[in-house]
Amino acid sequence: MVTGNGHINGGAASPSAVDQTVADAIAAADIYHSCGTTYLHIDNPLTTNSSAAMNHDANPTGAVVPPISLATTFRQNTPGEPMARSDPNSWGMGYEYSRTGNPTRGVFERAVAAAEKTKYCVAFSSGSAATSAVIHLLSPGEKVLSIDDVYGGTQRYFRKVVNPRMGIDVDFVDFGNEDEVQSKLKSGDGKIKLFWLETPTNPTLKVTCIRSVADLAKQNNALLAVDNTFCSPYFQNPAELGADLVVHSVTKYINGHSDVVMGVVCTNDEDIYKQLRFTQNGVGAIPSPFDCFLALRGLKTLHLRMEAAARNANAIALFLEKHDCVSKVVYPGLKSHPQHEIATRQQNGYGAMITFYCIGGREQAAKILQNLRVFALAESLGAIESLAESPSLMTHASVPDEQRKLLGIEDTLIRLSVGVESCVDLILDLDSALNAALSGVAVK
């Protein structure tokens, strides 16, 4: 940042003094929390003198883009002694078999670890596989305490696989309700070993104080895993707030282009990292080198995409809040959001996900979605294109009806993943679809 004397902090050496005009221009250009250099270079070449920072060891050809390594096996000079242990992308293990370690996967893992400000990252073939790897840290008879409003695929996995087939009980709670949390902890009888948190949640965008839950987990000798998919590493870094594990569906914002399915788990704990790496190798749910290449390319523009999408989302949320055909808008950036202050305190921005409730019922919600032309009616989120969906009929259809009702996942709820198209076009699209679908319906 530019200091009062006109110098810039953060580099290995400060440049010569600059006048106020230059200082103002720099401040206006560098709105990305200094993330751009990290996303592109992993180790900042200005502050790190290692050859790894300059990619000399990992890429002796001098190519500015890490290559796609398709080899499934690697030559050894001595039996049982993998080569290239000095390659930082091998995490000190060298290479012997591509399921165990791959150069392209390794550089992607290092990049995500740097983005999440953690020591370690382990990549998996999907976000669901990453979630499963975290559950593999537990033993039969232990318990999970999960946020109640959680991604539909996660709750389905918890309810239909983890609980009945693995001997690990899973209970759901609103972490913002202290009495309810304490009741669950008491009934857990000391067996709760993992807290699972999404913030903001999917799809109702409930925000929870990560530091408070992290403190509670530590008091109860449990780990805290935070699914950070909705914020991405750009807008939130849970490990800095006390989380033991940070989970992402890379499919969403990190990749950002709707062409890769992948997941990661990040941590600062070496023992947890070793267990995750063992599971990655033993289960074999690994991403392909080509997918890692694509996701790494996506990560390099994460800061640009997140800022653009969040600006669009803020304007759209304000527009929807004033629209006669909308009964309620949920967006952490709105002062009307019940946890707006928590979001402001722990996030670097409010993200690009919006939930709103339309006037009418299921029929009207369906018509809105069918009348959209710029927004695509599709599941998933976090890409450059804008998407819209009905959680009750699509992503969260597997949630039991009574649970959906308790969580507020109503038939009139529409979830928007705002992309980077023209904000004017997105608002015109929503306005047209709302007016067409709700013609003749009593408005607020």
Task: Describe, in plain words, how this protein is organized in 3D.
The N terminus is likely disordered. The chain is globular and about 80 Å long. The chain has 15 helices and twelve strands. The protein has 444 residues and is an alpha/beta fold. Strand 5, helix 8 and strand 6 form a beta-alpha-beta unit.
> What topology, given as strand order, has the largest sheet?
1-7-6-5-4-2-3
Low-pLDDT parts are 1-13
Structural class: alpha/beta
Q: Note the overall shape.
A: globular
Percentage of residues in helical conformation: 25-40%
Number of strands: 12
String of helices and strands: HHHEHEHEHEHEHEEHHHEHEHEEHEH
Computed Rg = 23 Å
- End-to-end Cα distance, whole Å, is 47 Å
Fold blueprint:
Blueprint: H1 20-29, H2 35-41, H3 103-115, E1 120-124, H4 127-135, E2 143-147, H5 152-166, E3 169-173, H6 178-188, E4 192-198, H7 210-219, E5 223-227, H8 232-235, E6 245-249, E7 263-267, H9 270-283, H10 289-299, H11 302-322, E8 326-330, H12 340-346, E9 353-358, H13 362-371, E10 376-377, E11 387-389, H14 401-407, E12 413-417, H15 423-437
Parallel strand pairs: 2-3, 2-4, 4-5, 5-6, 10-11
Antiparallel strand pairs: 1-7, 6-7, 8-9, 9-12, 11-12
Helix pairs in contact: 2-3, 3-10, 13-15
